[in-house]
Amino acid sequence: MKKEQQLDLYHQMVLIRRLEERGAELYQAGKIGGFMHLYIGQEAVSTGLIAAREERDRVITAYRDHGVALNCGISANEVMAELLGKATGMSKGKGGSMHMADTSKNMWGGHAIVGGHLPIASGFAIGDQYAGNDNITICMFGDGATNIGYFHEALNIAKTWNLRVLWVCENNQYGMGTAVDRASAVTEIRQKAEGYGMKNGQVDGMDVMKVYEASKEAMEFIRKESQPFLLEIDTYRFRGHSMGDPERYRKAEEVKKWQENDPIGIFNKQLIEKKIASAKALDEIEARVEEEVQKAVEFAEASPEPAMEELFTDIYAD
Fold first, then answer.
1. Which residues of the chain have pLDDT under 50?
2. Minimal CB count within 10 Å: which of 78, 90, 136, 281?
3. How do strand 58-61 and strand 137-142 relate by DSSP bridges?
C-alpha cells in the first residue's frame, strides 16, 4: 500500500475516534436522541475492511455504523447532522444513529434489528448473480448475531447458491452485556462456517493492516471462486454497548488491558517505525481531524430540523 493510502487510513481511524467522542458529549448534553452505539476501539475493523473493497462492492452493517459510514465516504458533516436528527444528514435526520446509509456510495445502511440485515445481504448477492457480475456484498455483524436464525439461514443459502458474500463477524467479545463464552457453544466464531462447508478465517482486529490484508485475500477468493467466505475479526469496544450501558458485566482491568492495545496507537507506532510518517506529520493529521470534527458539529447544530411534511415522504419507493 502506498504511503498516501496508509496516511489516509490513519486519518479515517482518528476521524472515527474523534467524531465518536464528540458524539458522546453531545448525547450526554441531550442533543442526540434515541440509542447510540459507539465504535471506539473498533476503528481498525471497518477501516481495513472497506479499504480492501472495490467501489462496486456493497457494504451493509448493523447499528454500530458511524465508522462504517465515514469509511464509505459519507462526510463527517452528514454523519454528525444525522446524529443530531437534522435535515442535512444523509438520511434527512430521519434515520439517526442506527440507520445511516447512502446507496450512491454503496453503503446500504446500518440496521437496528440484530441480524435482520443478513438475509438482505444474501438477497443483494442473488441480484448480482442474476446480473452476471462478480460484485461482492460485504455484510458486517456482531458476535451476538451468530446465535440467531437469520445468521444460519443467510449462510446456508449463500453456500447452497454460491453467493459472493463476505460475511464479517466483528467479535468485540460481548453481545450487549453477555460474554461470548456464556452465549455461544462455539467461542471461535469462524468455526460456525464449517457447518456449511464455507471457507473461513480469523484476524486480529486491532491491527488495521492485518485486517486489510485478510480482507483483501478473502475478497480475491470470493471473486475468483464465486463462493462466500466468513471472516472473524477479533476486536474490543472500549465503551459500553450503548450510551445507556452501566458496564457492570466487565472489570475495569479488562478494559484497561485492551486499551493498551489501542488500534490507533498500534498504527501510529507502525507508521513511525517504518518511516512512512514522522510523529509530527501524524500530529498534523490529528489536528486537521480535530478541526474537521469541530466544523461538523457547527454544521450540524446550525442545520434545520426536518420539516413536518417530511413525516410523509420516503415511505414508498417510486
1. none
2. 281
3. parallel
